[in-house]
Design goal:
This is histidine kinase. InterPro entries: BphY/WalK/GraS-like, HAMP_dom, HATPase_C_sf, HATPase_dom, His_kinase_dom, HisK_dim/P_dom, HisK_dim/P_sf, PAS-like_dom_sf. It is found in: Membrane. The protein is α+β, with helices and mostly antiparallel strands. It has 4 domains: about 150 residues, Beta-Lactamase (2-Layer Sandwich); about 90 residues, Beta-Lactamase (2-Layer Sandwich), CATH 3.30.450; about 70 residues, Orthogonal Bundle (Helix Hairpins); about 160 residues, Heat Shock Protein 90 (2-Layer Sandwich), CATH 3.30.565.10. The strands form 4 sheets. A 5-stranded antiparallel β-sheet has the order 2-1-5-4-3, with helices on both faces. A 5-stranded antiparallel β-sheet has the order 7-6-10-9-8, with helices on both faces. Strands 12-14-15-17-16 form a 5-stranded mixed β-sheet, with helices on one face. It is elongated. The relative contact order is 0.05.
Amino acid sequence: MLTLKKKVILLVAAVVFCAFGISWGLLYGVVRDGIVRQSGLELSRQTALLSVSLSKEGVSGFLKDLARWEGILRGRVTLVDARGAVLADTERDPTAMDNHLSRPEVKEALSGGEGTALRYSTTTNMHYLYFARRVSLDGERTAVIRSAYPLEHLSAAFAETRNRFLLYLLVAVALIIAFGAGLVRLFFRPLDRVVESAGKIAQGEEVRFPLMAEPELQRLSSALDGMSAQLRGTMEELRSEREDLSRIVTALPVGVVLLDDGRRVRYMNRVAARLLAVRGDVPPGTPVERMLPSGEMYGLILSALEGGEESRVFDLPELDGRCLGIASRKTATGVLFVITDLTEERRIEQSRRDFVADAGHEFQTPLTAIRAAAEYLLEAPEEETAEQRKKFLSSIIAQQERMSRLVDDLLLLSRMESEPPLRDAEEADLSLLLAAVADQCRSHPFASLIAIETDVPPRAPAVVRTGDLSRALSNLVENSLKYVREKFGASEGGRVSLILREDGSFWSIMVADNGPGISPETAPVLFERFRRGDASRSRGEWGKGGYGLGLAIAKRILVRSGGDLFFRPSETGALFEARVPRK
């Protein structure tokens, strides 16, 4: 960037260049006109001699003396007929030359007797001054004799004048720059002292502007001193307000992101970085596109930059199912984002809706059975036996017990979906836990003729919620017991196996049975609420009373512990794999 000193020096130099340029233009015109005028008179005389010679000697005689005329005149001579065809030329072969009827000097000579032109020759690639004269050949034909003079003298004069002018110009510019630089330094020395003081103030030093001898500069120095004092006070206030605002924004329970007009980050608090899963610090100037976990958020930015205010809710399954509410607003310098974590609120609301919908649907069946039994007892004939009445009363009690189990299962599902994952987790030995589950299930009513086997390592440490994991594994084993008993009935041969193996960073727990198995079409919906699989594993004689919540509960327990539950294809029955993190 040019300083004021350099601008002044360049301005003086530009004035000098302009003055010399105007002088050069005037000199160019005078020299050019003089040389052209002198050359034109000489060509006029030469052309008159050529026309006389051509009239007396004829074309053939003229052509014989053409070389002699070229040496005498020291110029170019051309003979053109009335149709523009070149009959003779001292420098080129006439047969290879273009038609000259369109040449301005030839046209002027044919129409007015004489013609002149100063132009560039495309034939010889030189500038010429042309003079043409109309002549009569043999008293019948008309032709044009043209002489041309190369402007070498004019070019030489121009070159000499230009060289002298450039030499004078360089000397003058050097003297002016040297003199002007010294003069400008002298004039600007007081301002340099003011600039030096301003630079120290900009760096945070407390200095005063120097006193000047010149009245104008003295007033400037005093005004700058007053402005400096006011600026220091204002900066202190701004610094204090900025620190207060930063502390307030940092302590907010919501995320705050401020962008400039170029969609670069100006400020981001820690809550926003956590909600957007940004790793490391975010320096000012970072493009916001690097931090957006969802492409739809970019549309919110563009809408805000156009002046709109908008709020949206974003579901981000790639961020552990996080749900964020983002409100955007256009500011004077960019866009302001306020980010609210709605994950917990969404989870609780979804849990409430699912609970109400599922419970209302599943309560309908036992309530209908209770109502039917009660209506029958109310309207039963007197001859109904006590044994028959007892059967209906037992049905009412059984349906009530099923409703109680349903309520317990639904409450457990609701609790798991509303509580944070891994709450109350503790270190446990999965080998001991599987052995305890197997012992507990051996006392199940359906397990009397079924072998429950375990294959576990000596020790399998993991951090889990022991009660919930036991419930999940018990559901899997009891589910297998029901359907193995359904297949074998009162016969022996049924088997349920629990196998524990280490698999990388997980423990793999296999629950296998030799029951009727599960069809591939049913497998995708096994872990949904109130889904009981296909007909072969639904409410039969031994599975009577199930609501399809056991596998759903087991799935959610394992997912919330950092693992998962899978159905694996098997040729001998059903096979489930529960994966539990080792840490």
